[in-house]
Structures are given as structure tokens and as C-alpha cells.
Write a structure and sequence with these properties.
The complex is a heterodimer of chains A (about 230) and B (about 80).
Chain A (H helix, E strand, L loop, with lengths): L4 E6 L6 H10 L3 E6 L10 E4 L19 H11 L4 E4 L1 H8 L6 E3 L7 E9 L15 E8 L3 E3 L2 H9 L3 E5 L11 E5 L5 E4 L19 H13 L1
Parallel strand pairs in A: 1-2, 1-3, 3-4, 4-11
Antiparallel strand pairs in A: 5-8, 6-7, 6-9, 9-10, 10-11
Chain B lengths: L1 E9 L6 H12 L11 E8 L5 H15 L5 E8 L1
Antiparallel strand pairs in B: 1-2, 1-3
The chains are: A alpha/beta (about 230), B alpha+beta (about 80).
């Protein structure tokens, strides 16, 4: 059986693509580099949108990336069920692309925050979180200046009512996110976006606060193998 | 040739911590009488032709598509001059 192929997207200004690719390989999948300027998803089984400052965060975080050639391929594929995980800037891009509702705005305290953060897993029904336990608390690094999740009251009520809040900050809200939201999913559960960084928490060797990030990748691999 | 201005502001219900920081700075600089500040963006679009109805309709599409994120922002359009 050939290994599952997970695409890792690089935009100009992406920072975390190498860590993301390494995390994918550690989980036993093949990491396939995807370039923002190509109209080509290379037949991958899932896509990881890593963090960074794509297009320099010009205009708004993710606003320009969202119209890149690669995204014009990814958006319909994701709507058709392709599993997609966006972390940090990747989450911002997913919101700008309207693959996920709401938006990420400037942190309430205005400071860029870089720290290890406790996060509670609120849903294990997504393609990327099946290997966690409901209510499990994990620790992942966060590093962002614009991570305050906002959405209108109707959208928030829908997210909460449909169990689509996937992660919530625990032990204090770092950025003023509404309802302490750290990550959400779409109705189908194939698209997940979160501000924390699972790809930075997969190996003790790197001084990571945990290896809890591994479960994102084992979750998607099991999904792909069983698909 | 015409210049069209697109002003983009966070919706009133969206927290604007940058505006709040500016509001807090003003009294420290000796300015009084300002009860609130909201910060936004201004885009100046230089058109090749006149700002007729078709051109302004296009500008509206540009604003909805790219210049503003209508999930969190409102925009207004006016022709300068």
C-alpha cells in the first residue's frame, strides 16, 4: 500500500511549511510540496495550510493568498470533501476564502503572543481530530498577532449548536476570541482551522511543550486509510 | 480619469483595539474631548476612464471581493473632486 499523500502549501511569506512537512512525514505519510502559483493539487489526499505571513499579511491576513492560483483549485476541492487543515495564517486564509465562517482580527491586547497554550478538544468528529478524546486538554504553541476569532451572533450560535467549535482556549483566553474559540470546522468536518500550531508539537527533540500535535496527523492518516 | 475613494471600517460591533489604543493615547498628549476612536482603511483608486455607473459598479465589486472583508467590515464609495 502506498503512503497517504498530504500536500503542504507554500505561499510567499509562509514560515511553517518545513515543520508541517516534517510532521506529516513523522506520522508516516508523504509530504507533497504545493506551490501557491500552480493550478495543481498534485492529486494529494489532504492539504495542510501552514502558518506564516503569506503575502506579507498585506491588506488583511490571508486576503491576497485566498486568490492565489493554488487556492482557486483548493477551494472547490475542499467544498467537495478534500480534508484541509489550516493553522494560524492557514486558518486566516480559510476564513478569507469563506471555507470557514467568521474572521480572525487583531488580538484584544494588541500584543503579538508567543507561548505554550492549553487547549481543550471540543470535537473529535472531524477528519483531523478523531484520535483525540472529547474534552481532552492538550498543550500547543501559539504565535500570532491576529487570532481573535469573531463572527456574528447567528454564526456563533450555529457553530456552538452544531458542535463545530473544535478547540477552545483553556486556562485563560490569550487574544479575546469570542467564546474562547481556538479552532472550528465546517459542516462536513473535513475542513479544520485553528490558531495553535500542532506541527510545532510533534517531537521532544525540538523542545516542544508536548507531542500532542501528532494526533492531528495520525487522525488524518487513519481517515485516509479507511476511506 | 477619475479618482474613486473606498473607505473601509470595521463593523460597529467588532472590537477595534487599535482605535482604543489611539483613544487612550490622546489624553496623554494633552488632547481632550475625544470620547472614542475607530481606525479604518482608505483606498484611492485611479480609474482609466470616467467614474460612470459601470465603473462604480466595478469598484463596488472590487470592494466586496478584495478591499473589504464584509464578514467584519463595511465600506463606502465616493468619487473625489
Amino acid at each position: 500500500m502506498s503512503a497517504a499523500r498530504v500536500g503542504v502549501v507554500t505561499f510567499p511569506g509562509t514560515l511553517d511549511d518545513q515543520d508541517a512537512a516534517r510532521a506529516v512525514r513523522l506520522a508516516g505519510a508523504e509530504a507533497v510540496p504545493l506551490w501557491h502559483a500552480d493550478h495543481d493539487l498534485k492529486g494529494v489526499d489532504a492539504v495542510f495550510l501552514p502558518g506564516g505571513f503569506s503575502y506579507g499579511d498585506y491588506l488583511r491576513c490571508g486576503a491576497i493568498s485566498r486568490f492565489s492560483p493554488l487556492m482557486t483549485e483548493l477551494i472547490p476541492a475542499a467544498q467537495a470533501g478534500l480534508p484541509v487543515l489550516g493553522t494560524c495564517n492557514g486558518f486566516q486564509i480559510l476564513c478569507e476564502a469563506h471555507l470557514l465562517p467568521g474572521a480572525l482580527t487583531r488580538n484584544e491586547g494588541l500584543h503579538y503572543i508567543c507561548r505554550d497554550q492549553r487547549i481543550r478538544v471540543e470535537s473529535t468528529r472531524t477528519a483531523w481530530t478523531a484520535d483525540f478524546a472529547d474534552g481532552q486538554e492538550i498543550v500547543l504553541p501559539i504565535k500570532h498577532g491576529e487570532g481573535r476569532y469573531v463572527a456574528d451572533a447567528a454564526t456563533l450560535a450555529a457553530l456552538e449548536g452544531e458542535g463545530r467549535v473544535v478547540f477552545r482556549y483553556a486556562g485563560g483566553n490569550p487574544n479575546g476570541s469570542l467564546n474562547d474559540i481556538a479552532g472550528i470546522t465546517n459542516e462536513a468536518g473535513n475542513i479544520v482551522g485553528l490558531m495553535p500550531h500542532p506541527e510545532h508539537a510533534v517531537e521532544d527533540l525540538t523542545g516542544a511543550p508536548s507531542v500532542d500535535g501528532r494526533h492531528f496527523f495520525t487522525s488524518i492518516l487513519k481517515r485516509l486509510v479507511n476511506a | 480619469m477619475a479618482r474613486v475613494i473606498v473607505d473601509v471600517m470595521l463593523k460597529p460591533e467588532i472590537l477595534d483595539p487599535q482605535g482604543q489604543a489611539i483613544a487612550r493615547a490622546l489624553p496623554r498628549l494633552g488632547f481632550s474631548g475625544v470620547s472614542g476612536v475607530r481606525q479604518g482603511k482608505r483606498f484611492e483608486l485611479e480609474l482609466d476612464g470616467p467614474a460612470d455607473e459601470a465603473a462604480l459598479s466595478d469598484v463596488r465589486k472590487m470592494a466586496e471581493t478584495l478591499l473589504a472583508n464584509t464578514v467584519i467590515e463595511d465600506f463606502t464609495i465616493h468619487v473625489e473632486g
